[in-house]
Amino acid sequence: MDIHTVLKNKFGFDQFRPGQEQVIQDVLEGKDTIAILPTGTGKSLCYQLPGYVLNGSVLVISPLVALMEDQVANMKRYGEKRVIALNSFLNYTEKKQITANLERYKFIFISPEMLLRKSVKNSIERLNLSLIVVDEAHCISQWGFDFRPDYLHIGEFFAYEGRPPVLALTATADKKVIRDIGHYLNLEEPTLHQYPLDRPNISYTIMDLDSETTKTRWIQQRLLETKGPGIIYVASRRRADDLSSLLQEKGLSIAAYHAGKEQEDRAFIQEQFISGEINWICATNAFGMGIHKIDIRQIIHEHIPQSIAGYIQEVGRAGRDGLQSAATLLYSHEDEGRTRFIIQGDIPTEKEIRHYTSLLQKNIPSDEAAEMAKITATGKRIIDYYLERMYLEEVVRRMEKLVQDKEFQLQTILRLIYSTTCIREMILTFFGESSIIKPESCCSVCGTVDDRWLQGPQVTNLAKRPLNWTERLIELLG
Amino acid sequence: MNLSSILLTIINKLDGERTIYAGFHLLRGKRSGQTLQDVEYYGLKPFFGLLPKLRIVTFDEAANRLIELGYIATSDDSLVTVTEKGRLELSILPSYRFYGWDYRGREMIFYGRLTLTVQTMSNIRAGKKSFMPIQKDMNIQTFVKKLLYELPIKNPLFSRQVGEELTIGIIRSEMSDLQKVIFTHRLAGYGLSGWTWDQLAESLKLNPFTIRLMFIESLHMLLTVIESSTDLQLLQKMAADIKVSSYLTESSTKTKRLFDQGMSIEEIATARQLKVSTIEDHFVEMSINNTDFPLQMFVSEEETIAVIAKMNELGTKRLRLLKDEFKSLTYFQLRLILGARTGEGA
């Protein structure tokens, strides 16, 4: 079947977005493929469409359970029922039931840790797989901003005779990360598709402000005078709550979002932001994955992000409708230390690792031991992986190396922040792109940012009034 | 209503015989021998497992508030008591209608099923077949799917019927007007998003935590009336398996099964590869929860009567003090007596 016909019949589109067609063609030809497509450009179509053309099931390895659930929900929403997510959310009976009937599903989403369970692995190997997809493939690289040790295992799974082609997808990857993806996934001479990262409709502004108070004042002024919808990224949960309530008091329509909020609250806020009921979100980096909103006009960073790649991922959520949008990064001199502190807080120190392993030897459950040794959940995940594979001394050295790597990434973004050359150019060069066409409204270094279009009446927080309870039920159910 | 006042009520019941952290374990629903024992001895079932995810910092804040207000005092051995001032405060507090022992946080599963059902019906009513489910939990999604499968959801009158049943349930539960507003605004539907705790707090001018507690209480009240309302069929289906059916922990249930087969404590310990003291904890749990617990197999009726009399005379349930009085009895025997003969089960 012609892929254009499938595109029309299954997805209702007349045309491919830039990059999609070439990636799909390579996948259909059975080549291992690495595709770097910016967020919001329809990455998932690159495996969904081949799924319908090829016989057999598509296995999608995805790092974040929440993201996975979101993708599955989206596919179901658009009428695909043969889709399932295999992750740690399932209980034993469900898992057993699903793995016994895996061949029923066209699209199987799976988390790396599930993939490596023997029972699951066996039932997957019995399947007729047409394609294996590694989503957010940059997570495999320690150079990536989202390193997931679980991902390093995936390659082990791929090492069997006659495996189907692998498609590695990511939004952002520099040369080092691309090399790591090919290496750790055991890809065979992968073809690389890389599509321009540049988003000409986004202007970049970086500003030096002397303290948190100044930043707060600037943000307040900005939100009162310019348009949303927008996202303010802050460094901590507490700051998200504080800044959000402060701005709310000024009459702005805003809510805080972070992983410390209850699941329902997060769903309510997301819904309200998408529907336009609230105009701004003040969030930690927990916000953004799986949000489908095309008219975000502004992204404001109130801290120094941990890496350029992470920064670009967040900024890329603006202006998916192609209209003019603005990215603003505010920093003060004290931020450098703060960001370093947050980054290093996740990586266990030698002392913590030794304390942790000595507790494990006393048969203390690992979760408790991690807590006692003051190791974060991320940190525990990383060292558990290494402790299984190497000696303690080596693990300690690994962690030191990781600290250095992260420090290197921080230095890179600091160079961007203090840069005296075009910000757009710096970013694109970092990702290995050479041809750069500067849009009219480019960046604060070029001095061409024109955000007069942003001026305008902001949405104020119309004091929400609860309904009478019977009215509310009638509005909901009739 | 707030955490401090609930804690004050709990401390009052603990009667100066426990440290303040007994309250923490109780609210989190810790299933250890000690906490389960406290629940029974001190009549604390309503508060058990009320806040399974309560953070220690939040708890400490509430406790410190009570200390600052002079409502509670701690002795040298960390035991906590209610002061005169605290007693005065207690007398003006409204009574609570929590049923923690029955629901233990599982009321949130019921709420999850309800929100998803309401969201689904609301969208179908608006002609929308696809929407982002407010609940991500697979179990809840599967449950609601199965539930709705056998109902006439396409009938335009059905959603109103759901609304009417819910209205009756809410009225019958006798929740307060404020609770009715909170409850209905935590539901979402087509074009009508739910309200976050912060948004409710902001517009009702209350502390978000207070609102959460009021919400939990309203769920407990609603679930209790649903249980006895045979006319609320849909709600009864949604409440299936929410109430705790066996008050024994899973491990204790296994021990009980072996005991019923005629095995001794030592034999059970060997068979299950557990310590004798652990098995003894299970027996104490059984003595608390099973009205037909054969206490006489472990201690004579005369001794039992004597211990209960002494307990009333001294006005204490502290084991150490009772042990001083009954040197021939083991701690295990004393715990069994207290378990079987005090609290609601007595």
Automatic annotation (TrEMBL), chain A:
GO terms for cellular component: bacterial nucleoid; cytoplasm; replisome. InterPro entries: DEAD/DEAH_box_helicase_dom, DNA/RNA_helicase_DEAH_CS, DNA_helicase_ATP-dep_RecQ, Helicase_ATP-bd, Helicase_C-like, P-loop_NTPase. One of its GO terms (biological process) is DNA recombination. It comes from the Bacteria. Coiled coil: none annotated. Keywords: ATP-binding, DNA-binding, Helicase, Hydrolase, Nucleotide-binding. Residues 24-191 form the Helicase ATP-binding domain. Its EC number is 3.6.4.12. GO terms for molecular function: 3'-5' DNA helicase activity; ATP binding; DNA binding; four-way junction helicase activity; hydrolase activity. Residues 218-365 form the Helicase C-terminal domain. SMART domains: DEXDc, HELICc. PANTHER family: ATP-DEPENDENT DNA HELICASE RECS-RELATED (PTHR13710:SF84), DNA HELICASE RECQ FAMILY MEMBER (PTHR13710). NCBIfam families: recQ_fam. This is ATP-dependent DNA helicase RecQ. The gene is recQ_2.
TrEMBL record, chain B:
InterPro entries: Helicase_HTH (IPR029491), YpbB-like (IPR008308). This is Helicase Helix-turn-helix domain-containing protein. It holds the Pfam family HTH_40. It comes from Filibacter tadaridae. Residues 253-338 form the Helicase Helix-turn-helix domain.
